């Protein structure tokens, strides 16, 4: 009776040993070709013999002669292994200069302000067909969105992703107080941004913990410098962002220390382990890193 062999009984080493012995007609030469020890090859052959219920190769003066079953197996097994190796080593068809690919990138609002223009400026001449779709909200967990490829890359301060191995630190930032340089800051008069579902929620939470109630709360950081003009209010803003925004204002701002310490801001780029051979994702990640590295210097505030 013909024995049924299921795929879960096999592994690729068994098939590779089989086809190499078939070609070499010698266990020792097969071991050398495979970079294995001869006892290891003999053990794997014995295992394959048990699975097949057939000796597969018979020793003779001319070497290891294949049985009828081994001869029947040889061509389809060799073909299957060749096809598998070709599939696993298929060259990438990604070419940034000609690609029309659309990448979905999650960016926090601060990330968009700091980096989006730099990123687009960098890629528009070298990769004119590339499209970037920025995403500011998501359903479920952001990690799941990355792993199921709904989002290609996430960029920003995203503590729930900090433990992932597929992350790279871009830079660190800190929260500072900033006020209109023409006025004196009043004690305990602060403006903060409350950004739902973001790490920046730590700011109003820490103020509440210290018993300081902000006089103004806005939904994003971009509005904060604008509400300062002519007031004694101090806004709490990431330092890199406020330095950038100050260059777009006609009135001067001054940075001051806050009454208590807030956590450092770690800006990272995150991706999925499932994209490790995706040259498009590698390319985009490198463009983001380069956009940070060639960021123009931001002038200092007066002390």
Structure description:
By secondary structure, the protein is of the alpha/beta class. The protein has three domains: 7-89, Arc Repressor Mutant, subunit A (Orthogonal Bundle); 102-171 and 266-292, Periplasmic binding protein-like II (D-Maltodextrin-Binding Protein, domain 2), CATH 3.40.190.10; 172-264, Periplasmic binding protein-like II (D-Maltodextrin-Binding Protein, domain 2, 3-Layer(aba) Sandwich). The protein is built from nine helices and twelve strands. The strands form three sheets. Strands 4-3-5-12-6 form a five-stranded mixed β-sheet. A five-stranded mixed β-sheet has the order 9-8-10-7-11. A two-stranded antiparallel sheet has the order 1-2. Strand 1 (57-60) and strand 2 (63-66) form a beta hairpin. The termini are far apart.
Number of domains: 3
Cα gyration radius (Å): 31 Å
The strand line-up of the biggest sheet is: 4-3-5-12-6
How many runs of DSSP E, i.e. beta strands?
Answer: 12
- Under CATH at level 1, the class of the largest domain stands as Alpha Beta
In the CATH hierarchy, the third-tier topology of the largest domain is known as D-Maltodextrin-Binding Protein, domain 2
For the biggest sheet, the summary is: 5 strands, mixed
Strand portion, in percent? 15-25%
